[in-house]
């Protein structure tokens, strides 16, 4: 079964960049409680059913994080 770890990845990237969830919320134009809900909910950012459908069709999902050369919009 494919596991969805985007929530953990976002937490780790925030720590690596020294960005709080509140700062991240401001960067993407939403509220801190909404970002917290996305990161902490059990279903995950990618819908669990979507991931399972691809799994049953014989596909793995691979995500690669590549740091932008410009540095992005980190505060």
What does this structure look like?
51% of the residues lie in helices and 0% in strands. It has 75 residues and is mainly α. The chain has a domain at 6-56. Helix 2 (21-28) crosses helix 3. The longest helix is centred in the first third of the chain and has 12 residues, at 6-17.
Overall SS class: mainly alpha
Query: Mind describing the biggest β-sheet?
Result: none
The total strand number stands at 0
Instruction: Please report which band the strand proportion falls in: under 5%, 5-15%, 15-25%, 25-35%, 35-45% or over 45%.
Output: under 5%
Q: Please bin the fraction of helical residues.
A: 40-55%
Computed Rg = 14 Å
Shape: globular
Question: Number of helical segments?
Answer: 4
Q: What value does the average pLDDT take?
A: 81
Quaternary class: single chain
Layout of secondary structure:
Elements: H1 6-17, H2 21-28, H3 32-40, H4 48-56
Helix pairs in contact: 2-3
Features:
single chain; globular; 75 residues; mainly alpha
Task: Describe this structure in a few short sentences.
The chain is mainly α and 75 residues long.
């Amino acid at each position: 079964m494919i596991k969805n770890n985007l929530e953990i990845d976002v937490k780790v990237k925030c720590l690596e960049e020294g960005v709080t969830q509140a700062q991240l919320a401001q960067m993407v134009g939403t509220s801190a409680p909404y970002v917290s809900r996305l990161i902490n909910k059990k279903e995950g950012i990618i819908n669990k059913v979507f991931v399972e459908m691809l799994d049953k069709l014989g596909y793995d999902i691979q995500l690669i994080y590549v740091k932008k050369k410009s540095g992005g919009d980190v505060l």
